[in-house]
Amino acid sequence: MWFRRDLRLGDNPALLAAAADGAEVVPLFVVDPTFATAGTPRRALLHDCLVALDTSLRETGGIGLVIRHGDPGDVVPAIADELDATSVVVSRDYAPYGRRRDAGVADSLADHDRTLRGVGSPYAVDPGQVRKGDGDTYSVFTPFSKVWRRTGWQHPHPAPGDDVRWVGAGSTGVVSDPLGERPVAGCTLPEAGEGAALDRWRRFIDTSGASDGSSRSAVAAYDDLRDRPDLTGTSRLSPDLKWGTVHPRTLLADLDASGSGEEGHTVFSSELAWRDFYADVLFRQPHSAWENLNPKLDTIEVDTGKQGEEKFARWCAGNTGFGIVDAGMRQLLATGWMHNRVRMITASFLVKDLHLPWQWGARWFMDHLVDGDLASNNHGWQWAAGTGTDAAPYFRVFNPTLQQERYDPDGAYVERWVEDPSEPMLDHRVERTEALRRLKAVTGR
Ligand SMILES: Cc1cc2nc3c(=O)[nH]c(=O)nc-3n(C[C@H](O)[C@H](O)[C@H](O)COP(=O)(O)OP(=O)(O)OC[C@H]3O[C@@H](n4cnc5c(N)ncnc54)[C@H](O)[C@@H]3O)c2cc1C
Question: Which atom of ligand 1 is nearest to the CA of 383?
Fold first, then answer.
């Protein structure tokens, strides 16, 4: 069992498949050198998730996680040879790098009559599965989400039983490399691992958990509070979903996701549908990771010179003089997380007030977010830039001051993160007009 983005024992169909028919199971994680290019908060959290998985394995199976360092294309076939494994079981990866990596590993294994078996994925509905009647796929969220709901998902799978024949770190003849030093995150990380993820979820669905003091659960109040960065209105499960310490199926099973139940439940499950939607778009159009989904905007004028870099530096540091933008950017640096509404506001500001390429902001987010995920992040950015799926047209420009008044009505969020407010670096009305001028130059509208 080669773990990647499914760092849990419960509700893990790949693990059950590996253990089926009394087969011996070696729990493997490969520390890929390409991880070094990922942001340190994300790598630090991965480290913590691996420690938690190792602990769970020792408690459940009496053995530890087998760690190997190196290119998975070499390491996985080598350990399969060493242990004479018949197959390597994984939860399928649908992102561009993972698909290339897995194709290479599958070929190398096949040379020795071994198989790479993909079972399940990190999504409620696997990318590529939500289709129109004629088999075509969706490029717009609303129709996608309706079919996504109708397609449905499996019930959660049980955790592996006591009868699994584990072979791992601590077993005779199985060598595990040390995990290595934990990267210095530079920010406060959430508690990691399957147990912590399930605790977070239970607190979110518990009755009387809502942060507005009402007697509702946080999930029941989600529809009302999810846009308020000053309150704790969202689940904070994105890092768990990123590393698979919890599967969306587990969450959906606890909700009335049919669409007929409580509004908060339906809206929350729609957010999980957005996650599946972006994974689906990236799967079908891998180039959209870093290129505009809408090529019409490829030639829009952006500021990339020295002046652009100076503006970018102020945005990164949270020194734009717009309270909610600066609060968000500082929350990101301090915690590795930013509220969704504020991600939208800061992204819009970078693209439409500063006229910078969305890719600069997307890269900064990937480097600093603890939940950084190529599909959700880069398509979130394309949504904000108006270059992606159709939800936010380019001519819709967020006014940061009005957004702040609306979503942080008492100013508590901005006050929490910005102690030294500065003068606004620009006039939003002027930059809005400029953004629309640049748009008209390429679209004629
Ligand atoms: C510019 C931008 C960048 C983003 N980058 C990322 C990223 O790197 N990783 C990431 O997981 N999410 C990203 N998002 C989506 C969203 O902001 C986060 O998932 C959310 O803020 C995480 O907090 P939560 O777990 O409390 O969310 P909740 O509101 O509790 O939502 C539950 C789950 O639904 C999913 N979800 C919610 N909103 C979205 C969305 N708009 N798109 C896709 N999935 C969603 C997430 O998995 C989230 O954990 C981005 C959004 C924008 C606008």
Answer: 53
